[in-house]
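EI: anyone free to look at a 408-residue chain?
SC: sure, send it
EI:
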Amino acid sequence: MRRVVVTGMAGMTPLGAEWSDIRAAMHEGRSGIKYIEAWDKLTDLKTRLGGPVDYFEHEKSFPRKAMRSMGRCSAFAVKAAESALAQAGLTDNPVLKSGRTGCAFGSSYGSTEPTKGFVKFMDTGEATGLTAMSYIKMMSHTAVINVGIYFGLRGRVITTSSACTSGSQAIGYSYEAIKHNHADVMVAGGAEELCPTMAIVFDTLFATSCKNDTPQKTPQPYDQNRDGLVIGEGGAALILEEREHALARGATIFAEIVGFGTNMDGTHVTDPQSETMGEALKLALADASLQPSDIDFVSGHGTATVQGDIAETLATSDVLGTEVPIHSLKGYFGHMLGACGAVEAWLTIEMMRDKKFAPNLNLNQVDERCGKLDYITGSFRDIDATHVMSNNFAFGGVNTSLIFRRVE
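SC: here you go
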């Protein structure tokens, strides 16, 4: 089988778009969670918290013609892909339009603003709020299509609109596409824009944090006193490339992806199952031909919801044992939904390269119902990791696990 490496990676988070800035904020114990004053008018929304990328003016990011088909969600995707391709040295490379470069990108929904026009049309029959591009901005595959069009990609296209596993499935399916010789290069990632419609989804499930007066102290993944998740926004892209193709052009290799596992619970839309979560981890290990003891660190999903945190950590502990170090980055960014898997994979690789891993933010007392694991707290932990695992789990019982290997 062909080997697959990472030659570019970039993104945008509530704490910045450069790893150096994000790392500095993490060292200071800062998060990107804020009180969203614009949501005060939404009387039935209990949470007022979000993780905005307020430095990103998406409407000014690209030429006017290109922006016609982009909402904020797809602008996140295209911007992340642009930076990642530049880092990979592929911006003007003929391989992009050769048919051997594809794209896999996902989001939970797309942009929500255009839906107002469709709702108005259904209620009144008036289409004054609609344009030829309204659907293109809101469709579930808006991110992957806009990335493909902007860079002229002509290879395999995979849209992964699977909520919280959108980004990680995009990376996993891209890895498989290259591994099985369907592509030489894949642009993979996830994106999401902050919208109160996303928050109300979890509000109705009593799953959002309502610590509105203390935004820097929530969410609290794995903590005994957590009260729910916080929605965030952003995007990230990884450039995956066949190893020999990358070496032949002298590309810098940041990591190798060696394992991917995905499955579904097949039982309930919102009640995660620890057993099938664990099976996804085992699938990734088998794909990588690794033993559980080979995993040196786990980037957990850790949404700060009771059922999710417990099921995930029990699965992780059951498969990998009690001594593996783990953190969730959602204490820093909130839950970036379709973007989280891509952002967390990117930053996990950065930390693996630094050999220093961020602590869980706002984790003061581990919930005793969670699995027995080495939860990183306090300050950055020095870990000389060879293999790291990044896990994500989504509504509908969708489970993903990615394994990356450090490249010296």
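EI: The radius of gyration is 20 Å.
SC: 👍
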